[in-house]
Write a structure and sequence with these properties.
242 residues; four-stranded antiparallel β-sheet; 11 helices; 21% strand; globular
Length: 242
């Protein structure tokens, strides 16, 4: 198991690689590599959490679903963090669902091990708590952004956050999936993506987005993106290698 985890790139998750060497080596045998497909449900609303996940090349969206079936993303996690914070915070279950936004790999750790390691205190506990604070900032800022900013600016923010967590300028996802993430209509997303393409910032084809001009996206995005990034940098330091 240890060798498999290392081969799958445990050091590609910035939280794990930010741990002191001794702590990192202690956790390696507890990590199991998994592969996520696009749209795969990592955990569902109210479901029992058996693992936490440290994405390495995948990105996972935290979604809230209303009674009428509409959804909106409140946060996302990639190689910057961990999925399943309710486990070490004592909640056991969570009202949101986690869905794979970008397919790829992750490392998982059993619930029992997570609780034991967290209870030990030390660097692992401190890093998870700092990440949780940073994630709360992202969720709070997303709520404000969805209420106050245009679909175009929200799309820029979302593309930048996604781009930060992958090692490629190309993102594979459907228009319907993007609209679910942003909590908007597909038509609105189409118009917003068309404007970004006309401005030379992205190339958009069915199920595929390529980032052409990142600086231009940053200039067009609202302040929410930079607030979230700055808070991650402040709290996580070397763990936030964007």
């Amino acid at each position: 198991m240890s060798g498999s985890a290392e081969l799958s790139g445990a050091d590609e998750n910035y939280l794990l690689s930010a741990l002191p060497d001794e702590e990192y080596k202690h956790l390696i045998p507890c990590l199991e590599p998994v592969t996520f497909a696009l749209g795969q449900v990592v955990y569902d609303s109210g479901g029992h959490l058996d693992y936490i996940y440290f994405p390495t090349t995948s990105v996972v969206s935290l979604l809230y679903t209303m009674e009428d079936g509409t959804t909106a993303e409140m946060g996302l996690t990639g190689n910057d963090g961990v999925v399943g914070i309710a486990l070490f915070l004592g909640g056991e279950t969570t009202p949101n669902r986690a869905v794979v936004q970008i397919a790829g790999r992750a490392l998982r750790m059993k619930a029992r091990v997570v609780k034991e390691e967290f209870a030990r205190g030390g660097p692992f506990q401190r890093l998870l708590l700092r990440y949780t604070q940073a994630l709360i900032t992202q969720i709070s800022q997303t709520a404000v952004c969805n209420r106050l900013h245009s679909v175009e600016k929200r799309l820029c923010r979302w593309l930048l956050l996604s781009h930060d967590r992958v090692r490629s300028d190309e993102l594979s996802m459907t228009q319907e999936f993007i609209s679910d993430m942003l909590g908007g209509r597909r038509e609105s997303v189409t118009v917003a993506a068309g404007r970004l393409q006309d401005a030379g910032l992205i190339h958009y084809a069915r199920g595929h987005i390529k980032i052409l001009h990142r600086k231009g996206l940053e200039a067009m995005a609202c302040e929410c993106y930079q607030i979230v990034r700055d808070e991650f940098d402040r709290l996580l330091g070397s763990a936030s290698r964007w």
